[in-house]
Amino acid sequence: MLRYAVRRLLELIPTTVGILLLTFVLFNVVGGSSAQVVLGKNATKASIEAFNKRYGYDKPLILNTREGESVFDSQFFNFIKNVARGDFGMSTEHREPVMDVLKRGVGPTLSLTAPMVVCGTLLGLALALGCAALRGGAFDKGVLVMSTVLMSVNYVVWVLAGQFFLAYKWRIFPIWGYENAFYLALPVLIGVLSSLGVDIRFFRTAVLDEIYKPYVRTARAKGLSRTAILVKHVLRNSLIPIVTYVSLSIPYLFTGSLLLETFFGIPGLGSVSLNAINSADLAVVRAVVLLGALLYQVVNLVTDLAYAALDPRVRLG
Amino acid sequence: MKALWNRLSVGGRLCLAVIAAYFLCAAWGGARSLRARLADETPAYNVVNVSARYQPPSATHWMGTDNLGRDVSARLVQGAWISFQVGIGTSLIAIPLGVLLGLLGGYFGGKTDSLVVWLCATVASMPGLLFILAISLIAGKGILGILLGIGLTTWVGVCRTIRAEVMKHRDRAYVQAARVLGYSHLRIMFRHILPNVAHLILIQFSIRFPGSVATEVFISFLGIGVQGEPSWGVMIGNARMRLWQGVWWEMTFVTLAIFVLVLVFNHLADELRDILDPALRNERN
Q1: pLDDT tens digits for B251-263?
Q2: Which residues on A lie below 8 Å from B123 (Cβ)?
Q3: By the 8 A CB rule, do A266 and A112 touch?
C-alpha cells in the first residue's frame, strides 16, 4: 500500500508541472502582459514599461540567461513561486489580491453546488437502479428516452426557461437573490435536471456491467430477493466507476456554475469567473483555472488511494 | 457506407434525414450570406426594418421578426450555418490531433506513450468550460476563438479511445506480418491499423458534433463567441430581452432548432455506437 501511495504521489509531479506550464503559456505568453487592459488604450510607452517592470513582465520567459542574474529569475519560475505562496496577483477589476476575491466566493458556490451534486447523484442512481431492475421494460425505455431528451436541452435554455416559468410566470420560486436556503432551491433544481440525462445513462451502464456476472446468478439461486441483490451486491460492485464519475465533479464544486450563479445572483466563484471573463480580468480567470486543475489532481489522488485501500486488485494490478 | 445505412433502424435513418435537411438549410444560408458579402449587400439576416419590429409569425415572416425587425427565420438559417461550421471545424482540429497522438502512443508505447498520456492528463485536468472560455477570450472573440477553444480541449477523448484500441491491435498477426514484410512504422500505422480503428472516429465525430454545437451556443450567448452574425447563442441572448413582454417566437424557434439538431445527433451517436462497437453491443443486451 505504501509503495503504491508513493508511486501514485510521484506521478503527480509531471502532471502538475504540465498544468503550470499550460496555464503559464496560455495566460502569460499568449495572453501577454495585462498592461494594456489595466492602463487603457492610450497608455504611454513609458507607463507600460514601468508596469511591466513592476509586475515582472520584462523578465525572460522560462530561463534567465542574463549576466549577473539568477537562472531561475524568470517569469515562469516567479509564477510558480507566487502560486506556491498562494499569491495569484492583483485583480484588475476588483483592485485587490485575487486570493481575497476568491475566498469570498467559495462559501456561496459550495452552498449551491454541494446540494446539486448530492441530489443529482442520488436521483440519478435511484433511476438507474430502477432501470436495471426493470431492464428492457417500459420504465427502462421511458427513462432512457427521457435522459436523451434531457441531455439534448441546451444548458442556457435550462437556466432561462427555469427562471422564466418557475420563478417569473408561476411564481413558485424567488427570481433572484441570495438571502436564505429557499433562494437556492430553483438553481439547484435546474442544475440537477440539466445534468440528470448524462448521469442516468452513465450509472445505468455501470450497473448493467455488473448485472450479468455469475455472482448475481448465484445470489439469485440462493433465493435472495431482487432488491437485496441489486442494492447489496450489484450496487456495491458497480461503485468504482460511479465513485470515479462523481468524484470528478468535485473540482466543479469549487469552480461553481457560471450561468446559474450569474442568473440567480449567487455571489460565488462561478459569477466571479464570468465577470472576470467579461471584463478580461485574466488574473482571476487564471487563478480559478489553475486552482480547479490542481484540485482535480488532489481529488484524483485521494480517490485512487481510497480504491487501493478498499480493493487489493487496484494496488497489485 | 451502404452497409451502415442498412443496419440503421428507421429512427436512425430519420435522424440522418433531419441532419441532412439541417445541412441543406445551413449550406443555403451560407451560400446566400457569401453572395451578399461578395456583392457588398446587407445579408438577409441583417436587413433592419424598424417599422416591422416584434412582429409575430405571419405569411411574410414565418417565424416573426426581432427587436430590429429582422426576419427570425433568415437569422435561424444563418445560425445553422454557424453551427455546422463549429461542429465540423472543431472536429477538424480535435480528431486529427487525437487520432495522431493516439496512434503514436498506442503503437510505439514506452516513452512516446508516456508523453501522450502526460499530455492527455494535463489537458483533462483543466476545468472544462472555464478553460474553453479562457482560450476563446485570449484567442480573440469570434468563431476562430471558439474553434480553438473547443478543438484544443476535446481531442483528449478521441486520443484516449484511439490509443486504447491501437494497443489491442499492436501485436495482432496482421501487424506482425506487415512488420516482417519490412513496412515502415508510418505505413503500418496509417495503412494497416488506422482503417481497423476508423469506426471509432465516426463514433467520436457523432458525439463531438452536438457537444460542440451546444458549447458554441453557450459561449456566444455569453457574448464572447461569434460577433456580428446571428449565432443561435447570440439569438437566445437577444430573444431573452423581451421574453418577459410576451415576445415568444424568437426564443421558441431558436430553442427548438438547437434542441432538434442536438437530439437527433445524440440519438444517431447512440445507434452508431451500438452498430459499430461490438463490445458495447454485447454488454447492453
Answers
A1: 999 999 999 999 9
A2: 22
A3: yes
ipTM: 0.89
Alpha helices, DSSP H, located in chain A: 2-24, 35-39, 45-54, 75-84, 98-133, 138-152, 155-161, 182-211, 214-221, 226-228, 235-237, 239-247, 250-255, 258-263, 269-278, 282-310, 312-316
Q: Is B210 on the interface with A (CB under 8 A)?
A: yes
User: CA nearest B223: which of A25, A48, A141, A280?
Assistant: A280
Q: Which of B118, B133, B134 sits opposite A18 (nearest CB)?
A: B118
Residue A157 to residue B255, Cβ atoms within 8 A: yes
pLDDT, residue A186, reads 94
Domains and CATH numbers, chain B: 70-284 (1.10.3720.10)
Which helix (H) or strand (E) element contains residue B130? helix B128-139
Residue A60 phi/psi, 5-degree rounding, is -60, 160
Rounded CA separation B266/A25 (Å): 35
pTM: 0.91
Contacting residues for A179 by C-beta, under 8 A, at least 6 apart: none
B270 touches chain A (CB under 8 A): yes
Contact flag B266-A289 (C-beta cutoff 8 Å): no
Residues of chain A with pLDDT under 70: 32-34, 36-38, 40, 316-317
Say which residue the cell 466507476 belongs to: A241
Residues A131, A127: Cα–Cα separation, whole Å = 6
Model pLDDT, residue B243: 86
Whether the CA torsion A274, A276, A282, A283 is positive or negative: it is negative
Q: What is the pLDDT of residue A140?
A: 94
Q: What is the pLDDT of residues B86-121, one digit of tens each?
A: 999 999 999 999 999 999 999 999 999 999 999 999
Rounded to whole angstroms, the Cα distance separating A294 from A243 reads 19
Interface test with B, best of A154, A171, A274 (most B CBs within 10 A): A154
With CA atoms as reference, the chain A residue closest to B261 would be A152
The whole-number average pLDDT for the span B139-165 is 93
DSSP B214-237: HHHHHHHHTTSS--SS--HHHHHH
CB contact, 8 Å: A156 with chain B? Answer: yes
